[in-house]
């Protein structure tokens, strides 16, 4: 899995951004034997709180992709997000839409490593954790990062999304 093109793109993006973990190291991907398709499954596999999992959700915002990185303990309030962004229509994206804009499949969408930048919102609830975990481009891979670094490397906007 470490050699999957999506994982390599994510690792390269982390290195190019000089991303750092909570202890100052470079984030390295962790590979599971099987995909972790829910925040609860990822948290259990890592031995962390479900809130530390940064779910990567792609929405169709008036035809443009919007990536919302939300705490695994939350559900995105699409009405609230749409109103905050001034978007008329905000809905879950189709698998084809997600792949077209990220190069990745639902269940493994990473916060970075996409063919081109995607507008990104980062849940403020993630800020309470010294370390958070995000998908690494495929469902079997995750990586650790801090909230501040996640904001920086994605160019994301800190937003209350729940």
Task: Please summarize what this structure is.
It is built from five helices and eight strands, in the order H-E-H-E-E-H-E-H-E-E-E-H-E.
Estimate the helix proportion, in percent: 25-40%
Unreliable spans are none
How widely separated are the two ends? 32 Å
Number of helices: 5
Mind describing the biggest β-sheet? Answer: 8 strands, mixed
Strand content: 15-25%
Q: Indicate the structural class.
A: alpha/beta
Task: Based on Cα principal axes, name the global outline.
Answer: globular
- The topology string of helices and strands comes to HEHEEHEHEEEHE
Instruction: Name the average pLDDT.
Output: 93
Number of E-state strands? 8
* Radius of gyration (Å): 14 Å
Could you explain how this protein is built, in words?
The protein has 162 residues and is an alpha/beta fold. Helix content is 27%, strand content 24%. Strand 2 and strand 3 form a beta hairpin. The longest helix is centred in the N-terminal third of the chain and has 12 residues. The N and C termini lie far apart (32 Å). The model has no long low-confidence stretch (mean pLDDT 93).
């Amino acid at each position: 899995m470490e050699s999957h093109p999506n994982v390599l793109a994510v690792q390269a993006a982390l290195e190019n951004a000089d991303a750092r973990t909570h202890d100052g190291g470079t984030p390295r991907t962790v590979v599971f034997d099987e995909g972790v398709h829910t925040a609860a499954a990822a948290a259990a596999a890592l031995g962390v709180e479900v809130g530390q999992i940064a779910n990567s959700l792609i929405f169709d915002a008036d035809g443009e992709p919007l990536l919302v990185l939300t705490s695994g303990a939350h559900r995105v309030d699409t009405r609230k997000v749409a109103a905050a962004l001034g978007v008329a229509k905000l809905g879950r994206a189709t698998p084809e839409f997600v792949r077209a804009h990220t190069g990745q499949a639902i269940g493994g969408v990473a916060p970075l490593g996409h063919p081109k930048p995607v507008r990104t919102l980062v849940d403020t609830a993630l800020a309470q954790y010294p370390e958070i975990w995000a998908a690494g481009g495929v469902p079997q891979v995750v990586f650790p990062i801090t909230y501040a670094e996640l904001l920086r490397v994605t160019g994301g906007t800190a937003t209350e999304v729940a």
